[in-house]
């Protein structure tokens, strides 16, 4: 795949996705999880090969991917391909940028590798048909090593034999359990980065002659059979590779919480504003959600009703619904433990009732259904079939740019933000990615 093969509208969307990706990444640079992973990789004392974004520090290639991806995915504010239920950019962009820095690739070569990586990770997610999540896995963490092998190998120029063996090796490295949904711990933040980290080691082993199974996906004991008990759908998902571009269907997240809750946020805010509702008159907020999503954002009920950690709040439909009504927004500032424990919020959460409802699904999307009942007996209902950011419910270009600028405003001045914007938009005309990497370091550092 070369840039000449890619439709112009896909390239334009890709650049906007990159803008969003660097914005959400650098907003996380002072968060606890970022500091922890940075300390871990720096303390390893590895070769100084690739930059930890936002710093002057360099570590070995795989560790740089791990850290930079944890920035992208750290606030759960990064893009999503909803039909495949994966976050494409966290692993793919971090891998392409780090490998690109390592080998001195041009901006065009890096962009080509990113688009190819997006297409691979999306197709693997589509082939799984949501069954990774059903079995308790985080799909992004499961499929990202394979996409990252393709990205890194394209930029490094490795042979088909190396790639095939590296993909086979990744079958024994991809892992991402969703137990964090039960206790709110932060392991999900590292899943995309660990996928890229695993890919680099898989490639290194394959290059040295280590072998991996050729039917790593569809084999008798391959990923599909071992993870959800069937071997169908894999090959079909790759048939139109290079002909159909799913990149254009990657959506931006306008709320830093689980994408499955976004349509509910929109419905609640609209109902409140359209009907001039106030907290004291609301008796119940009923949310109906398809079973696959219900298990993720509504269970276990006690934990979701009284979230005590950042990640439990992000994956709690009751909390998100309550905050949407009270604040009429869900931003990073509403993911706050003190706010979650306040009487106002807990009182509203207790009025949120969630139901698992098979009739409320819309395959390939995350719909929302909300019914608000007042103490006076009035009922207000709203359904949103597609989340914000889809072709049916599009986001304006200016909204993405504003999100980017808002994310960076804490750490960067207007001039630096403008320079970074221009560098990202012109990545395909650059000799390398050094300008973008240098601009990720705040001027005051």
Please tell me the overall pLDDT: 95
Total beta strands: 6
Low-confidence stretches: none
Could you give the order of strands across the largest sheet? 4-3-5-6
Protein structure class: alpha+beta
- The CATH class assignment of the largest domain is Mainly Alpha
DSSP strand content: 5-15%
Largest sheet: 4 strands, mixed
One letter per element, helices H and strands E, the order comes to HHEEHHHHHHHHHHEHHHHHHEEEHHH
So what's the overall shape? globular
Determine Rg (CA atoms, Å): 22 Å
Pfam families: MmgE_PrpD_C, MmgE_PrpD_N
Family: Belongs to the PrpD family.
Organism: Fusibacter ferrireducens
Protein name: MmgE/PrpD family protein
Defining key terms:
single chain; 445 residues; alpha+beta; 2-methylcitrate dehydratase PrpD; 60s Ribosomal Protein L30, Chain: A; 2 domains; four-stranded mixed beta sheet; two-stranded antiparallel sheet; 21 helices; 51% helix
Draw up the topology in text.
Blueprint: H1 8-26, H2 32-43, E1 50-51, E2 58-59, H3 61-73, H4 88-103, H5 107-128, H6 131-134, H7 139-156, H8 160-170, H9 180-183, H10 191-207, H11 223-228, H12 262-275, E3 282-289, H13 291-297, H14 301-305, H15 310-314, H16 317-327, H17 337-341, H18 343-349, E4 352-356, E5 368-374, E6 379-384, H19 397-408, H20 414-425, H21 434-439
Helix pairs in contact: 1-3, 1-19, 2-3, 3-4, 3-10, 4-5, 4-7, 4-10, 5-7, 7-8, 7-10, 8-10, 12-16, 16-18
Domain MmgE/PrpD C-terminal: 255-423
Family: Belongs to the PrpD family.
Protein name: MmgE/PrpD family protein
């Amino acid at each position: 795949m070369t840039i000449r093969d890619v439709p112009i509208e896909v390239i334009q969307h890709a650049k906007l996705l990159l803008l969003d990706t660097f914005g959400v990444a650098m907003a996380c640079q002072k968060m606890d999880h970022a500091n922890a992973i940075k300390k871990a990789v720096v303390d390893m004392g590895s070769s100084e090969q690739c930059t930890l974004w936002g710093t002057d520090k360099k570590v070995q290639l795989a560790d740089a991917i791990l850290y930079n991806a944890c920035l992208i995915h750290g606030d759960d504010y990064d893009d999503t391909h909803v039909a495949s239920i994966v976050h494409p950019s966290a692993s793919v962009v971090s891998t392409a940028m780090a490998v690109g820095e390592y080998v001195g690739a041009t901006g065009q070569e890096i962009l080509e590798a990113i688009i190819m990586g997006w297409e691979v990770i999306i197709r693997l997610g589509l082939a799984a048909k949501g069954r990774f999540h059903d079995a308790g896995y985080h799909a992004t963490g499961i499929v990202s090593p394979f996409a990252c092998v393709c990205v890194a190998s394209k930029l490094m120029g490795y042979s088909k034999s190396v790639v095939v063996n590296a993909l086979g090796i990744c079958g024994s490295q991809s892992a991402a359990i969703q137990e964090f949904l039960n206790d709110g711990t932060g392991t999900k933040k590292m899943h995309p980065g660990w996928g890229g980290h695993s890919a680099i080691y898989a490639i290194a082993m394959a290059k040295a002659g280590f072998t991996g199974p050729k039917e790593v996906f569809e084999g008798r004991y391959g990923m599909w059979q071992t993870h959800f008990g069937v071997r169908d759908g894999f090959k079909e998902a790759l048939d139109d590779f290079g002909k159909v571009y799913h990149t254009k269907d990657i959506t931006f997240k306008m709320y830093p919480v689980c994408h499955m809750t976004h349509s509910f946020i929109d419905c609640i805010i609209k109902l409140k504003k359209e009907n001039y509702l106030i907290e004291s008159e609301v008796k119940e907020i009923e949310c109906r959600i398809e079973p696959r999503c219900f298990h993720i954002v509504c269970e276990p009920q006690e934990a979701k009703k009284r979230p005590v950690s950042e990640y439990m709040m992000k994956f709690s439909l009751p909390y998100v619904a309550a905050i949407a009504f009270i604040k009429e927004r869900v931003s990073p500032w509403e993911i706050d433990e003190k706010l979650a424990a306040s009487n106002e919020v807990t009182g509203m959460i207790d009025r949120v009732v969630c139901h698992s409802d098979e009739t409320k699904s819309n395959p390939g999307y995350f719909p929302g259904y909300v019914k608000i009942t007042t103490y006076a007996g009035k009922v207000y209902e709203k359904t949103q079939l597609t989340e914000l950011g889809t072709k049916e419910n599009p986001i304006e270009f200016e909204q993405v740019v504003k999100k980017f600028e808002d994310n960076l405003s804490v750490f960067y001045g207007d001039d630096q933000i403008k320079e970074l914007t221009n560098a990202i938009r012109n990545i395909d005309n650059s000799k390398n990615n050094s300008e973008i990497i240098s601009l990720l370091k705040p001027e005051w550092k």
